[in-house]
Amino acid sequence: MSAAALKALHVPGKPLVLPNAWDADTAKLVEAAGFPAVATSSVAVAAALGFADGEQAPADEMFAAAARIAKAVGVPVTVDAESGYGLPGAELAARLLDAGAVGCNFEDTDHATGDVRPVGEQAERIAALREAAGDGLVINARVDSFRGVDPEEALDAGVARAKAYLEAGADCVYPIHLRTPELIAEFVRGTGGAVNVTAWPGSPGLKSLAELGVARISLGGGLWHYLRKQLEATLAGVAEGKLPY
């Protein structure tokens, strides 16, 4: 499947909904449920491999997991590539494309320091990835500048950051920590491009988020967290002698 097919699914007001998968089996279930694309969740993939999120898993293992997922389904796959694992744009693009991905998340957090990169630096990284990938990848540029701050006070700077990323070649921008409907609507209006948001617990529902004009909705690690809690409860019952079936 092509990046063009994935990009065409990003429609403001009629967003692409992505229940993020973490292995070939869960990716197949997403496809079987009728979703037109599969996205991976870095936290869930890393956990399934025995590592913490935040680029703690070896890049080779993350790309191998992505390749298994892409091979297992017939719909476009977009990979949560975190902050790029320290790879230059050309190598990151090559590894994503070799894995069969046609899209990626690309964070502006520097996982070596925990800080958000200066906007100019991240824009250059996006431009390098775009140049290397050509039209082969849909770049979803994550905007992490709303983390740990008053989101209303950070809105103008966040919008400016997002616009810089779009100008550098990103196809979509992703203010992952922006949750309130009013601020999401302002971000969408101010950015003027495709916007991805996360469907957090307690956040506006899928219909409401669509009405705010977003073009893409991710569940992130939400499904993994939810199912993991269900499994924990089930295992506790088995430990008490209760079979779940």
Automatic annotation (TrEMBL):
Species for this entry: Amycolatopsis rifamycinica
Protein name per Swiss-Prot or TrEMBL: Carboxyvinyl-carboxyphosphonate phosphorylmutase
Top-rank lineage group of the source organism: Bacteria
Family annotation (PANTHER family): CARBOXYPHOSPHONOENOLPYRUVATE PHOSPHONOMUTASE-LIKE PROTEIN (AFU_ORTHOLOGUE AFUA_5G07230), PHOSPHOENOLPYRUVATE CARBOXYLASE
GO MF term (any one): catalytic activity
